[in-house]
């Protein structure tokens, strides 16, 4: 199955979305990512009990932090699917890509380039 | 029973009569005329009038000033004092202030939490609790000393009371709790409004079993319902209140214009029943913003004229 | 432990607005356990602050560091060589740690990044509740091991008040009535007779009312 999604998306594999902490999300954005999304197993179907539910809360927390510093919380999102759903994976990738394009570039980028 | 103070309330009880007290809430302003008006309604029908102390933690004209005003009108005031707003210096100081105007009754309370009132951001003091305030008053009166140990010149002469809620939880300590208040020095008790008479009588039985009714005068608290809405509000919204369903139904079954009359009827019937309960020494009628109905209630319960009137 | 909670980020932003170089200083003790001011929270806050100011086009140097304790001289001393590099320190320690840091480094403003809430326990992760107000004269032996000072909204020594309803406090239906807890516990200890002992009038001079307190132990002094 060959499915298309934006080449701008960099996939980072983790053993479980429960491994991802708020700080990983923030650091990605601080380094210039325009958005961050987590793709975890379906709720109730975590191989590590409830890692995806932990991830969901951390995504909510990261979104709240972004809002509190004047950035769009929607740059961070969480999706869930089962491992057999490749078309769904591609669908979410396109959806995230579209959403981020609507929001535009990460607002810290001008600051980043002048610091460099 | 011999009396220990010049209190009229104490004398009525000592002479073996049912006592009748009522209460009067101070205004949210400085117009003492409101107190005068309420006092005029009740003056010939009660032995003493409680003045509430910033009840429900809403700031009002102070209890002590209203008590002085009532005294000057010829009524017998009961100074309500909560431990929420004053430390032991202020409490003792206000007790002396009251004593200076020959106010001879005090009701010791802890007070509603300030979060219910108009000053939720304020501190609460509770340097003492209600039982410790009872001990303080008795010590000032009986030993003639301040808590700090110094002698009081012309000590207060106050008949000392406390509140009791027979319906609050946990029920099993309701009688021991009263015993504690008696041990702390309470000479009279004014109870929470009684609507569940069966439960009240069960509590009274516990009081009698321990002989507490012989050590303290229990005045049964009553508040007439003005409407079915008020009955429902008391049932559902007021902490520590026990209003049985059949009482609410009895109010609700009446057409709206007949409800006030029904409320008065229920209140009179309650007093008539409670007069027969051994250990009940009188009634405390809290006709909230309905003071004009107090004479009708007192007469209806066969408690008029008042002794010595 | 001492339980704290991070201040709203807007308040923190206002505190450090005028400074170019700021050290976010965590503490490895209580505030780490209650997840308000440990290394992890320092990292998240620092990252958020850097991004905030970058959006505004401001170049701020926001660095991160976490000490073993901010309530101990020897650990605070570790900052000595670096402190002059910062315009200010934003401390995520409790009120004691923040002040001790400020006392140590007179020339550097030290701002609070947390609100210190109470002495309490972790009931479960993410849920902390109060247990002690440090009144200086413990009465737990008389009250079945449950504190009326910290757990009764009116700190009644002879409770409960008339507002106790089905085991809950009148001010908040989620809050246990401390006196219901005391009575239940005395019952399970077979000590319900202790309920009838009148609690004496408390000496509050050992509480904050007596002024700032100290403890002296000559035997352990160096």
Average pLDDT of chain C, rounded to a whole number, is 96
Written as H for each helix and E for each strand, in order along the chain, the element string of chain A is HEHEHH
How many whole angstroms does the radius of gyration of chain C measure?
22 Å
Helix content of chain C: 25-40%
Question: How many alpha or pi helices of chain A?
Answer: 4
Mean pLDDT of chain A: 93
Low-confidence stretches of chain C: none
- Proper CATH architecture of the largest domain in chain C: 3-Layer(aba) Sandwich
What is the percentage of strand-forming residues of chain C?
15-25%
Calculate the terminal CA-CA distance of chain A, rounded to whole Å.
41 Å
Which geometry of chain C do the CA atoms define? elongated
Task: Give structural notes.
The complex is a heterotrimer of chains A (116), B (309) and C (222). In chain A, helix 2 links the parallel strand 1 and strand 2. Chain A is 45% helix and 9% strand. By secondary structure, chain A is mainly α. Chain B has one domain: TIM Barrel, CATH 3.20.20.220. In chain B, 39% of the residues lie in helices and 15% in strands. In chain B, helix 8 runs antiparallel to helix 9 and helix 9 runs antiparallel to helix 10. The mean pLDDT of chain B is 96. In chain C, 26% of the residues lie in helices and 23% in strands. Chain C contains 7 helices and 9 strands. In chain C, the strands form 3 sheets. A 4-stranded parallel beta sheet of chain C has the order 3-2-4-5, sandwiched between helices. In chain C, strands 1-6-7 form a 3-stranded antiparallel beta sheet. Chain C is elongated and about 65 Å long. Chains B and C meet through helix 5 and helix 6 of B and loops of C.
């Amino acid at each position: 199955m060959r499915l298309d999604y934006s080449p701008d998306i960099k996939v980072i594999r983790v053993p479980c979305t429960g491994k991802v902490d708020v700080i990983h999300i923030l650091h990605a954005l601080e380094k210039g990512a325009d958005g961050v999304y987590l793709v975890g197993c379906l709720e109730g179907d975590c191989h590590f009990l409830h890692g995806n539910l932990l991830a969901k809360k951390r995504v909510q927390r990261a979104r709240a932090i972004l809002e509190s510093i004047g950035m769009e919380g929607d740059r961070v999102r969480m999706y869930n699917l089962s491992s057999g759903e490749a078309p769904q994976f591609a669908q979410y990738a396109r959806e995230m890509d579209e959403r981020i394009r609507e929001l535009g570039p990460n607002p810290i980028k001008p600051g980043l380039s002048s610091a460099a | 029973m011999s009396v220990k103070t010049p209190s009229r309330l104490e004398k009525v009880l000592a002479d073996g009569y049912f006592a009748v007290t009522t209460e009067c809430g101070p205004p949210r302003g400085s117009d003492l005329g409101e107190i005068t008006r309420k006092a005029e309604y009740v003056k010939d029908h009660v032995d003493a009038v409680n003045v509430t102390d910033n009840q429900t933690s809403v700031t009002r004209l102070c209890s002590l000033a209203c008590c002085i005003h009532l005294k000057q009108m010829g009524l017998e005031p009961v100074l309500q004092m909560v431990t929420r707003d004053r430390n032991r210096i202020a409490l003792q100081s206000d007790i002396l202030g009251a004593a200076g105007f020959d106010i001879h009754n005090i009701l010791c309370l802890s007070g509603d939490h300030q979060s219910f009132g108009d000053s939720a951001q304020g501190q609460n003091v509770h340097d003492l609790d209600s039982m410790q305030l009872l001990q303080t008053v008795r010590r000032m009166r009986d030993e003639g000393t301040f808590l700090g140990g110094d002698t009081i010149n012309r000590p207060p002469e106050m008949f000392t009371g406390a509140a009791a809620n027979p319906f609050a939880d946990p029920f099993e300590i309701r009688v021991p709790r009263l015993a504690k208040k008696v041990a702390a020095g309470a000479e009279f008790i004014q109870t929470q409004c009684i609507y569940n008479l069966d439960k009240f009588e069960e509590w009274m039985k516990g009081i009698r079993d321990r002989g507490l009714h012989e050590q303290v005068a229990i005045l049964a608290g009553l508040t007439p319902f003005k409407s079915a809405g008020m009955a429902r509000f008391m049932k559902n919204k007021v902490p520590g209140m026990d209003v049985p369903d059949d009482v609410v139904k009895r109010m609700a079954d009446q057409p709206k214009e007949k409800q006030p009359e029904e409320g008065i009827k229920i209140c009179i019937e309650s007093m008539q029943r409670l007069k027969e309960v051994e250990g009940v020494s009188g009634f405390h009628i809290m006709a909230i913003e309905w003071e004009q109905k107090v004479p009708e209630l007192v007469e209806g319960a066969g408690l008029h004229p008042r002794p010595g009137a | 432990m001492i339980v704290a909670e991070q201040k709203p980020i807007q308040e923190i932003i206002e505190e450090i607005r005028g400074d170019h170089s700021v050290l976010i200083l965590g503490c490895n003790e209580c505030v780490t356990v209650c997840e308000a001011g440990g290394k992890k929270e320092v990292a998240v806050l620092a990252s958020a602050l850097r991004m905030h100011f970058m959006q505004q086009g401001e170049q701020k140097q926001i660095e991160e560091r976490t000490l073993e304790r901010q309530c101990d001289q020897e650990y605070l001393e570790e900052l000595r060589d670096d402190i002059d590099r910062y315009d200010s320190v934003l401390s995520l320690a409790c009120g004691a740690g923040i002040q001790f840091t400020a006392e140590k480094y007179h020339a550097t403003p030290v701002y609070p990044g947390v609100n210190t809430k109470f002495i309490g326990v972790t009931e479960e992760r993410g849920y902390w509740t109060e247990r002690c107000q440090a009144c200086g004269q413990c009465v737990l032996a008389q009250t079945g091991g449950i504190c009326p000072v910290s757990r009764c909204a009116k700190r009644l020594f002879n409770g409960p008040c008339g507002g106790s309803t089905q085991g809950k406090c009148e001010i908040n239906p989620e809050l246990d009535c401390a006196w219901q807890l005391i009575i239940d516990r005395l019952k399970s200890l077979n000590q319900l007779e202790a309920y009838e002992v009148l609690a004496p009038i408390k000496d509050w001079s050992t509480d904050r009312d007596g002024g700032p307190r100290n403890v002296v132990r000559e035997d352990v002094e160096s």
